């Protein structure tokens, strides 16, 4: 970012800072890459559904790199307003100045706009995406009196975790039915071990044992656990082991303690760890 050529490059390419420059490592688990590519070809808005830490964000980064599109990511939350997405007038020394929000910017530069955890946002915020996600592909900036026509390469992608979110927070049908959807889940054991070995820097055999601990925890989902151990936590455990923490301790730190405060459940998970890491 501090090379002297950078400012010029940035002026020439407003998308420069949103480009994914190095290939993110992504292990496909099904036909999701081809399916997403077909959807992108039609600029179809897409919804990625799946539990926490199963690879949704990594997948989007990988697809943005593969399709050579800039990626604008927005972490949604309930305090977010429509202005946070579309933009607002700011006051500065010279008076007022309009500043595009991330959605507007993405629509202008032809980025993939990734709204992470979209159900966290309030309904009146989410509706601003509607005109962008049907044949109109426009974004009205009411305050500014401008109608932004989306760049031909613009695509909207949203993610959400259907598991633990309350029904109250479900997406409205009029929002939901603007998207094609890809289901994500933790990869099968072989693929997940590959991910854990690669990302955590541990041997395949050790990664496979971590994956078996996760499988036990996932069987406890709904029986006292909201979610099983995610691929992300497995990568954490592997990372600690690779940095010299003994495996049973690494599993306690990265797999058991983050997951639950319930003493009985912790004991059950510790027992699962002990089965695979004596
Ligand atoms: N198929 C995969 N290929 C490569 N890495 C993966 C894959 N699946 C999971 N991972 C690893 O798991 C980690 C967590 O994945 P990611 O951040 O994409 O989860 P997520 O589904 O976006 O979770 P959340 O819903 O909590 O945001 C990644 O940083 C990566 O190390
Ligand atoms: Mg994510």
From TrEMBL:
Keyword flag DNA damage: no
Domain ATPase dynein-related AAA: 46-179
Keyword annotations from UniProtKB, A to Z: ATP-binding, Nucleotide-binding
Pfam families per record: AAA_5, CbbQ_C
InterPro entries attached to this UniProt entry: ATPase_dyneun-rel_AAA (IPR011704), CbbQ/NirQ/NorQ/GpvN (IPR050764), CbbQ_C (IPR013615), P-loop_NTPase (IPR027417)
Protein name listed in UniProt: CbbQ/NirQ/NorQ/GpvN family protein
Family note: Belongs to the CbbQ/NirQ/NorQ/GpvN family.
Source species, domain of life: Bacteria
Domain CbbQ/NirQ/NorQ C-terminal positions: 192-275
Organism name: Thauera sedimentorum
């Amino acid at each position: 970012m501090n090379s002297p050529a950078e400012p010029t490059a940035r002026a020439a390419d407003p998308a420069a800072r949103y480009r994914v420059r190095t290939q993110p490592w992504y292990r496909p688990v099904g036909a999701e890459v081809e399916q997403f590519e077909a959807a992108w070809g039609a600029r179809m808005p897409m919804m990625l559904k799946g539990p926490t830490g199963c690879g949704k964000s990594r997948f989007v980064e990988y697809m943005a790199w593969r399709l050579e599109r800039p990626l604008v990511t927005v972490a949604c939350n309930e305090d977010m307003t429509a202005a946070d997405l579309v933009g607002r007038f700011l006051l500065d020394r010279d008076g007022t100045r309009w500043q595009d929000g991330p959605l507007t910017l993405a629509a202008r530069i032809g980025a993939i706009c990734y709204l992470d955890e979209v159900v966290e946002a309030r309904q009146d915020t989410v509706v601003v995406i509607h005109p962008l996600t049907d044949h109109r592909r426009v974004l009205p900036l009411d305050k500014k009196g401008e109608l932004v026509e989306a760049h031909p390469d613009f695509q909207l992608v949203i993610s959400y975790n259907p598991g633990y979110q309350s029904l109250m927070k479900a997406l409205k049908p009029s929002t939901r039915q603007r998207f094609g959807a890809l289901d994500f889940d933790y990869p099968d054991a072989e693929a997940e071990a590959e991910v854990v070995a690669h990302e955590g820097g541990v041997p395949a055999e050790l990664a496979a044992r971590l994956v078996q601990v996760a499988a036990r925890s996932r069987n406890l989902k709904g029986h006292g656990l909201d979610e099983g151990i995610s691929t992300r936590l497995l990568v954490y455990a592997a990372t600690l082991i690779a940095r010299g923490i003994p495996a049973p301790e690494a599993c306690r730190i990265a797999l058991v303690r983050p997951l639950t405060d319930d003493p009985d459940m912790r004991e059950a998970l510790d027992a699962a760890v002990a089965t695979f890491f004596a």
